Amino acid sequence: MSTAPRADIRLSNETWEALMTAHATLMGRFGAESIWEEASVREYDVLYTLAKHGEPMRICEIQSNVLLSQPALSRMIDRLTGRGLLARAADEQDGRAVRVSLTADGARVQREIGRAHAKSVAREVGARLTPDEMHELARLTRKLVAPPAA
Fold first, then answer.
1. pLDDT (tens digit, 9 = 90+) per residue, 122-149?
2. What are the residue ranges of helices labelled H in the chain?
3. Which residues pair with 102 in a beta bridge?
4. CATH: 2.60.120.260, 1.20.1600.10, 3.40.50.300, 1.10.10.10. Which one for 39-142?
5. Is the separation of the CB atoms in 100 and 86 below 8 Å?
6. How far apart are CA 145 and CA 143, in angstroms?
7. Which residues share a beta bridge with 101?
8. What pTM value is reported for the model?
9. Pair 50, 105: CB distance under 8 Å
10. Please, what is the angle between helix 6-31 and helix 41-53, to 10°?
């Protein structure tokens, strides 16, 4: 059982609320832009995850990098495959599994949206934080998701 002082609990929750508010505010601004014609923000997240990984991925691997449930992700992959942005292939190591990859058109959509989105992020984040603050924020957020120290 935690014995954290009440002030630590309050500060932790205020910090969490500030982080979530910043995320929601920025995502709202990004989502309102006209760059999402060929793929939605969530679809782009899947395309970006595959592009960043650089090779076909199993659905469970994609899911660990996006904020979607497994059923929602499976439906999205079906839609993106139907639109020609993704391809499915049997996993050579496990015949029961499927690997998903970007098609040439999927890679094009990811690059085009990615360029515009990177400019949006730079505009929103870079205009409000100094380079030192951005480094510190990146360090702190990576610390939050790192495995706990033993």
1. 999 999 999 999 999 999 999 999 988 7
2. 6-31, 41-53, 59-63, 70-82, 104-126, 131-145
3. 86
4. 1.10.10.10
5. yes
6. 6
7. 87
8. 0.85
9. no
10. 100
Tokens 């990146």, residue located: 138
Count Cα atoms within 13 angstroms, Cβ side, for 124: 16
Token pair belonging to 49: 């995850």
For the chain, what's the residue count? 150
Contact of 120 with 33, CB cutoff 8 Å: yes
Here the tokens at position 31 are 């989502």
Q: Which pLDDT tens digit goes with each residue over 63-112?
A: 999 989 999 999 999 999 999 999 999 988 887 889 999 999 999 999 99
